[in-house]
Amino acid sequence: MSARILDGKAIAARIRARLAERVATLSFRPGLRVVRVGEDPASGVYVRNKDKAATAAGFDSATIHLPAETSEAELLATIARLNADPAVDGILVQLPLPPQIRTEAAIAAVDPAKDVDGFHPLNAGRLAAGQPGLVPCTPRGVMHILAESGVALRGARAVVLGRSQIVGRPMAQLLLGADCTVTIAHSRTKDLAAECRRAEVLVAAVGRPGMVRGDWIAPGAVVIDVGINRLPDGRLVGDVAFAEAAAVAGAITPVPGGVGPMTIACLLENTLDAALARRGAG
Ligand SMILES: NC(=O)C1=CN([C@@H]2O[C@H](COP(=O)(O)OP(=O)(O)OC[C@H]3O[C@@H](n4cnc5c(N)ncnc54)[C@H](OP(=O)(O)O)[C@@H]3O)[C@@H](O)[C@H]2O)C=CC1
Ligand SMILES: Nc1nc(=O)c2c([nH]1)NC[C@@H]1CN(c3ccc(C(=O)N[C@@H](CCC(=O)O)C(=O)O)cc3)C=[N+]21
Which stretches make up the Tetrahydrofolate dehydrogenase/cyclohydrolase catalytic domain (predicted)? Predict the structure, then answer.
């Protein structure tokens, strides 16, 4: 194994410590509300980690857990109440939602000023237009890792594997904004391995355990593994075959301990940003 391991867990801890210092100077506690509907098991870990991190950093954090059979109208009413609550700065509606609820309807119901996931079409549009707004946590976290690790982005060939609204697309926008030459690959891409081999920076966000093999990676490339996949034996693995990839790459993020903890740190960052924008430096 030759690649440098990019320690997202350590970077996230530093970001959270800095946030805690800033929050301690405020006359209010930034308020974060996570709305969870039903019992998606993958969401459990994330919601617990987030609550712990938010409280430790001095945020006023709470989870609103609604039953699995909650109707769309009931969820929208809950979101409307949080939109109207002046103590709430950030709202996150945990995905996936049960089938009776349209995800787009829930996302669009969140006040864009409190949309700490950055999923609202207004914030997605701002990002695409190069305007300031709330940026999705996972891609924001990836940009922090790249910056903290001294990865030169200007003019670099970046390949983003995956085009979801929550990871792939905003990731590509941020890399483009940092002057990368960006390729977005997806399930209809003709030759994924060949596209990936051209990447100096490769971001994998497909949700397929170990799909990216060692021979898909250019020697010395920076590999960011966004995938969080639970195997039947309980292990958590990324979208990249780690051992193979680490033998070729110049640097790589592990799973766990890579991008996941950064997502939570950036959720807190977004919540503080939203609070300061709404309330002033208070
Ligand atoms: N670290 C973190 O904090 C987070 C991690 N994740 C993880 O990241 C991964 C991706 O999440 P998300 O973006 O929400 O997933 P989605 O399922 O929404 O999107 C997956 C994307 O990958 C593409 N894809 C799927 N299979 C293939 C394939 N065989 N070949 C090429 N492309 C493929 C899809 O293509 P198409 O569009 O053509 O269907 C799609 O664009 C998951 O493992 C998820 O758990 C997600 C959020 C946060
Ligand atoms: N509205 C919404 N926003 C999200 O950002 C969102 C979501 N819904 N639904 C689910 C996905 C997934 N996700 C994770 C974030 C952090 C870890 C995380 O902390 N992972 C740690 C530890 C995980 C463990 O130990 O099990 C790690 O990778 O090291 C995992 C998963 C956010 N998501």
Answer: 6-117
| Ligand closest to the CA atom of residue 11 | 2
Q: Are 152 and 68 found together in one domain?
A: no
User: Is this structure's pTM higher than 0.90?
Assistant: yes
pLDDT tops 70 at residue 282: no
Token pair for 149: 């690790």
Confidence at residue 149, expressed as pLDDT on a 0 to 100 scale: 97
* Mean pLDDT, range 96-113, rounded to an integer: 98
Domain total in the chain: 2
The answer to whether residue 214 is domain-embedded is yes
Cβ of residue 255 lying under 6 Å from some atom of ligand 2: yes
The reply, when asked if residue 228 is annotated as ligand binding, is: yes
Q: Is 149 in the same domain as 238?
A: yes
Within 10 A of 15 (CB to CB), how many other CB atoms are there? 21
Residue 162 annotated in ligand binding: yes
The candidate with the shortest Cα–Cα distance to 263, out of 232, 231, 225, is: 225
Q: For residue 1, name the pLDDT band (cuts at 50, 70, 90).
A: low
DSSP string, 140-176: HHHHHHHHHTT---TT-EEEEE---TTTHHHHHHHHH
52 in any annotated domain: yes
pLDDT at 233: 94
Is ipTM over 0.85?
yes
Let me know whether 144 and 252 are in one domain: yes
Gap from CA of 237 to ligand 1 centroid (Å): 14
